[in-house]
Every structure is written in structure tokens, then in C-alpha cells.
Specification:
83% helix, single chain, mainly alpha, 87 residues
């Protein structure tokens, strides 16, 4: 797949993922990931401040990469239709 098409598809995926229907789920998942990674880093000997800094970096990178990691655009469109129907 050409890089331009891949980036365009990821942009469309990001638009769906970060829409008002999915944003609460994305925020909840990233919050849980932040808390868990902070706890794990702190448990393995990092200071709490260092653990929070590293967790913030990892969570931000994951949120930026999320549209590229999610399944195909068609699956997301089907999921978007399902969520819209249930609201």
C-alpha cells in the first residue's frame, strides 16, 4: 500500500476514534494505561515523579499511534454505526 493511502486511512480512522462517540472510551483506556504504567514503573524502583513522566510519554505516544494500530477502516465504520445506533 502506498504511504499516502496508508496515512489517509489512518487520518480517517483518527477522525472516527477521536469523535464524540468514541472519545470517552479512548480517554478511559488511556487513563487506565497511564495509572497502570505509573504503578509498574514505581514498583520497579523508579521515583514517583520519574514514573509519572515516563508514563505520560508512553501514553501520549500510544494515543498518537492509535489510528495506525486500529483495524481496517471498514471495521471502524461498522463499529461507528453500531455505537450511533445505541445512542
Amino acid at each position: 500500500m502506498e504511504l499516502r493511502n496508508y496515512v489517509a486511512r489512518a487520518g480517517e480512522t483518527g477522525r472516527i476514534l477521536y469523535s464524540k462517540n468514541f472519545l470517552p472510551y479512548v480517554a478511559l483506556a488511556s487513563g487506565i494505561a497511564f495509572i497502570v504504567t505509573t504503578a509498574v514503573f514505581h514498583a520497579y524502583g523508579r521515583t514517583l515523579l520519574d514514573a509519572v513522566k515516563e508514563s505520560a510519554i508512553i501514553t501520549t505516544m500510544a494515543l498518537l499511534a492509535l489510528p495506525f494500530m486500529v483495524g481496517t477502516q471498514k471495521n471502524l465504520k461498522d463499529l461507528e454505526l453500531l455505537v450511533n445506533r445505541n445512542h
